[in-house]
């Protein structure tokens, strides 16, 4: 490994052999503060260890082999090289002495508690400093290879433990200064530039890596005559992947065509399968290419590429989930791919599969099942061997699952827990890391929902720009929600219509249904109740066609509200019983509250034709439902809805002659009404 500081070396020796640590320090001090002949004497003394009838060290022992290797290396040095070695030893010792001197002067100025705290912090930080090598001079080939493999492993498994992008690039530049043809250093530089989304530098480093690979003949040694061509086709394939990642699809397609052409000339089926996978990724930006994907999976299995085959199955499942295929068939397909993962110990793909299941259950509106899958992944241990202290599974799968978990907690009103998970995400995936955009989007969305629930529309509006930067469709949709809440109906309608056309074009069914529900709400608020019905029926047909059960339930609730407004509350109550169960089982707190509030409204409207005794029972039942709705709204701090519930309860208590309860509700209503003045919209005229 790289040379560690003397203080650390002494500490490491002290842990296993305390008396030896002092001897090492004394010998180094004698050599560093003495003359060149002291170092020569040291190597002469080493040679004497092997002499005699009972030598202190056997030549074939581990220590013996190491010492002989060191003596041979020293004997081969020229005089100038011996002098350089001696000056390097002096610098090594003196730099540590200077550091100790600074620490001692600091100790005199600090009290014991501060010193203990600093020592504890140093112990905690110790593993991080071990990885930070200073390339002041040329490193040996093995030291450089160790540093590169270590940093590459950390970038894959736990990016937070790797050097910061700027520090790592500085070290790599130092390495390349002494050895410009070191291909692996160029590849690590490519990975490092990807971390900070630097398209120019990452392309530059990738091309240099393959250039050096061809120049040094590293590929030719392992692959015979095919080495040169193999480097070229994989260079083109990697370049295509790079362009695809940055959204340069036209350049990616050109690079991919080049890779396919070279792979076909060389009859390289493995490379062609990788090309086919990337071709699917590019083609799906234009049209659904299920046939291409199925062909890729079959060919990958034929050529014994389980990793590629499994990724193909995952993509196929995702595509069919968006196409509205039955959940049981998708889960069966994922079960088959899981068997493939366990058979070949592909732990990364096990994680992807579980994250995929979490996302599918969320898509279908089954939050309980999604929560179960998320917990399964988080409680799993990786199959891959990683160093102690390195965070396992720092992959996109974990980022996705933790983001879903954050949203699930926020929906249920557990904002403190959601904040803790987000804090963990920020530590695990720093802002410059590859998957940071996932938690950034969820963080903004949760803040937006809280601001909307609290009636602070100016804050919600300020968050729209951040959401749009991360996801343009989500941003436009939320801008429309803010305009609707501010009663800017025509502007909101124009925006929603544009978004609807765009989402239909790109086949984003989930967003299409959400937009249709928002448009229906605009029609209610404009007293165009009959126009809202066809829009809602269209949303219901789409949600049932694509098996989006939760959105279907939400659409039915909206239809029930339309029927209530149109004067048929009995019919509204009948269809409410169909839809309310999934909402109460899997819904967000806000949706549960809205559903119970709607049930209470329908009960009161239906009671108009009842006998006096039956009417009293119906109103009391409505009050109980309103209490439940109030509990749900209070959990997510939804003040506007709470105000509406209190108003409704006060009216019901007044009808039943319960003066004390009525006055209590009226007082609470008045407090909220002063805090959130009405915008001139009738309270009964909105479902959410």
Automatic annotation (TrEMBL):
Family: Belongs to the APC5 family.
Entry-linked Pfam families: ANAPC5, Apc5_N
The organism's place on the tree of life at top rank: Eukaryota
Name of the molecule in the record: Anaphase-promoting complex subunit 5
GO cellular component, one term: anaphase-promoting complex
UniProt subcellular location: Cytoplasm, Cytoskeleton, Spindle; Nucleus
Record-annotated Anaphase-promoting complex subunit domain positions: 186-285
